Amino acid sequence: MNRHLLVGRYGPDDQLSIPSAADEQMTDLQLIAGEKSLGYGIGGALTSLKALGVRPTEIGLDLLVLAAHVHAADTRISRAEQSQDSWTREIRLVVPVSDPTRWNAAAPTVKRTLDFLTGDHWTIGFRQRPERFTEIITPPGTLFPPNFDTVSLFSGGLDSLIGAIDLLEAGRVPLLISHAGEGATSDAQNLLFATLKKHFSPTAFDRLRVWMLFPTDLVQGVSSENSTRGRSFLFFALGVFAGTGLETDFVLRVPENGLIALNVPLDPLRLGSNSTRTTHPYYIARWNDLLGHLGISGRVENPYWAKTKGEMALACANPALLKALAPHALSCAHASNARHLGIKGRGIEQCGYCLPCLIRRAALDAAWGRGNDTTSYTLPNLRAHPLGTRESNGQQVRSFQFAIERLRVAPHLAKLLIHKPGSLADEALRLDQLAAVYQRGLAEVAQLIEGVETTPG
Distance between CA 31 and CA 396 in Å, rounded? Predict the structure, then answer.
């Protein structure tokens, strides 16, 4: 095990000495590609926004550079190899920024946000960018502000699709934000966006899509990591980065149903590393703290925190369009399962039995009635045969069965269980509603898996 130090560098002549401890492995993250252009998709994001008439601020750019450091550390430092408990890593970042005084004041909030999100121990420090990179953003070439009136994350999943449809049907002009991932995710994002552009052709909405990937050998002698708990920090940072260029107060919308946002552990084993916190209310509150410290005139909001996924689908502003596009929206945790199994004639499809697939199937049954979900699932019939709880196709079903039965016997536990994933100290006025959406979300899944048999074999 090593403690790790990741130091951002603005070009080969950026050689400022950064002290390190004897047990820290230092890695330089070279941010510059070519003479002055920013690498890892950051320069491309600036170019894409410029073409849309959007000029983010220097602080907004700093935030995306910080997110690049986080994403590099999160994906290129193996938890199994570099932690004492096979999960918790110790990571220090030294990030070059435009205003170190402002950023150092915000560092404790950045640390709280990342510690909560990834379960690691982060130490965050900032230093001044080298002089020739003091100003990177070119001034706007026009006095006219951008056309966009809001920013919304667009992952290619069902919730973000509903979020986009609802905005567009309301006459809003959103700038959608996508982080390009592996093939299935990118395919879903591209198909859904292209269809929305065609359907809402008079509307001047658009999308920022960024791909950020680091060499597998970035950290010498250390394997990569595939848990990617920190990816939502990059996703949120992309949205805020773009939002700072709207030249007005903005809202970054994070469309996520309340059951997934809370992500209450389904059973005693689903704690810590098994419980993601990417849209948890505490995490969103810390982001808003961070924006306040940085002087960014925006907020992060989840407009669907009080709705189940089924309620989101049922209330969608254009149900016909949602029904047409839902089969192409990607919810699955491992969408390439059919391909990996070598099932002839199948490409990338959704497995139908992982946690997000079960919530999705339950939601569409609740919204449209059983049998009206036309999505292709690797396991189309959950009742065809008993599902083994030691096999991937039965593990999440059994966990849901446990959680559903626990609440059936003691419904009052909902008000206690919602606190398990993290603090809800910021949500004192919404606790009853959060408990209620948790109960209703589980009730949707209960309808889906009623009569499904699980066995330990």
Answer: 41
d(CA 29, CA 15): 12
Query: Residue 229: which pLDDT band, with cuts at 50, 70 and 90?
Result: confident
Q: Which residue, chain included where needed, has tokens 């107060």?
A: 249
Dump the DSSP string for 127-159: EEPPGGGS--SPPPS-SSPPS--EEEE--SSHH
pLDDT score recorded for residue 337? 53
* 80-104 pLDDT per residue, tens: 999 989 899 999 999 999 999 999 9
Q: How far is CA 63 from CA 42, 68, 106, 233, in A?
A: 11, 9, 11, 10
Q: Compute the distance between CA of residue 405 and CA of residue 384 in angstroms, rounded to an integer.
A: 22
How far is 288 from 366, CA to CA, in rounded Å? 33
Cα 158 versus chain centre, distance: 13
Of 416, 422, 79, 383, nearest in space to 223 by CA? 79
Q: What is the pLDDT of residue 59?
A: 98
How high is the pLDDT of residue 264?
95
